[in-house]
Amino acid sequence: MSAAIAETPEGVMSGKQFFGHPIGLMTLFFTELWERFSYYGMRALLVLYMTASHENGGLGYSNARAALVYGTYTSAVYLLAMPGGWAADRLLGLKYAVFIGGIIIAAGHFTMAFESEVAFYTGLVLIVLGTGLLKPNISAIVGRLYRPEDQRRDAGFSIFYMGINIGAFLAPLACGFLAQSDTWKRTIAGWGFQPSSSWHWGFAAAGIGMTLGLVQYLVGFKYLEGVGERPVREDGNTTPVWQGLVSYLAVAFALFAVVAGLQQLHGLVVGRLGNAAGYAYIALVFAGIIALVWFSFLRTLAEDELKRMLAIVYFFLASIVFWALFEQAGSSLNLYADRLTDCRIFGFAFPSSYFQSLNAMLIIFLAPVFAWLWVQWGDRQPSSPAKFSVGILLVGVGFVVAAVGVAFLNGGKLSPWWLVAVYLIHTLGELCLSPVGLSTMTKLAPERLSGLVMGIWFLGPTFGNYIGGLIAGHFDETRPESVGSLFYQVAATGIVVSVVAFVLTPFIRRLMGNVR
């Protein structure tokens, strides 16, 4: 890694401040806020748009097809974080990778504003490519603002993540209003547009959000001087931007080709042998990845390092289960809100996509409470494996609540408080697992394999989102009893896995050594 990337310039440390932190944090805070606004705004609409009828401006997809597209898209976002980080470190520089990624993301959202299935898929591909460049590298720049011994680092990341959740909270409210509300449909009808085109106004709003993020990133570019600069090659020159971008795109499309091939084979297995064989096929892919990591890296490690890597593999597998269940939020639970829930509270009617703001809102309020609890408990707080077990248990319990709610349909619609309860329980589970997992990975990883470990960690939501899409494909609102059965099965999976995780906790703690 080049010195330009690894070092923190004195000017960044001693210049203007943002709530007692380097002023560059303000630039990154608002860039990430608007990028997450664009991502979660589009995510809230994605499945609803695909399953809406042609008459209502949608694509008319079945729930199964829409869920598979959704799962593939969200998993690809995480998958490309690895080549995106590689391209920034070796070729583009972190700072420029973020800017280029933001441009590609905005182009993707604006492409989806056009009423065409080709434009829809082109937009999704562009958003995935852009997010692969922006998402991993903007977080890395935050870390570069501080020296390793700076006590403000953790607080700086807390401020940064607050920006993420503010964006995620606001996005479904703004984009959902434009896409679904009758008020907006009447407004655009008065302007001469078809009311059914409202979905594309929501997609365009996501693009406007990313554009605002880019504008303020450029305005604040001077506050990041010397941080995440272009890496210098051995010959003293930097790689031309176009070469770096082409290299990234080549790796990204190679990964797309591999994933498409694996997905096609999975479809053949399911078609010939059934769903059980399909999940067995996915398990074989997992085994192949673990075997590749083993023969490439793990068998050369010292005993203590090997134990820690085995613990990392355990956390990776546990996270797949969690994300497969938790990410139903944008797919099956989104359909649950739209098709089965009465979207009115205290007489106020609202679009079903508004439910997608609940998780972010709850995190904004509850994350400080959890941070305070961990500090207060100190050494008495649960270990990382125990927190993982609780997180998986809670996401399972949330689906018990969703399944019980179906029993109260009686030909009508459910109270929205059922979904509020589900999202509350799931958010508690997320706060037990997600930030804890990231912190644990950094502490367990052998220094020379830190990049590999973070790649493994990002593979968790990659596989989890894809499996989550397959699960959501079984949602059928025309048969409420099948929805209840599906959610009971999902809940049982989470609860059983959490019990196994609790049993394994003492063993995993021994593998972790002195890391809690």
Strands of the biggest beta sheet: in what spatial order? 1-2
Tell me what portion of residues adopts beta-strand conformation: under 5%
Name the overall outline.
Answer: globular
N-to-C span:
30 Å
- Helical percentage: over 70%
Low-confidence stretches: 1-6
Order of helices and strands: HHEEHHHHHHHHHHHHEEHHHHH
Q: What is the overall pLDDT average? A: 85
Rg over CA atoms, rounded to whole Å, is 23 Å
Main sheet attributes: strand count, strand direction, barrel closure: 2 strands, antiparallel
Number of strands: 4
Describe this structure in words.
With 516 residues, this protein is mostly helical. The chain has 19 helices and four strands. It is globular, with a radius of gyration of 23 Å. The model is unreliable at 1-6 (pLDDT under 50).
Short description:
The chain has helices spanning 3-6, 10-14, 24-51, 63-79, 81-92, 94-112, 117-144, 153-180, 182-190, 198-219, 241-273, 275-296, 303-326, 332-340, 358-377, 384-406, 417-444, 450-472, 480-512; strands spanning 17-18, 21-22, 344-345, 348-349.
Note the topology.
Blueprint: H1 3-6, H2 10-14, E1 17-18, E2 21-22, H3 24-51, H4 63-79, H5 81-92, H6 94-112, H7 117-144, H8 153-180, H9 182-190, H10 198-219, H11 241-273, H12 275-296, H13 303-326, H14 332-340, E3 344-345, E4 348-349, H15 358-377, H16 384-406, H17 417-444, H18 450-472, H19 480-512
Antiparallel strand pairs: 1-2, 3-4
Helix pairs in contact: 3-4, 3-7, 3-8, 3-10, 4-7, 4-18, 5-6, 5-7, 5-11, 6-7, 6-10, 8-9, 8-10, 8-15, 11-12, 13-16, 13-17, 13-18, 13-19, 15-17, 16-17, 16-19, 17-18
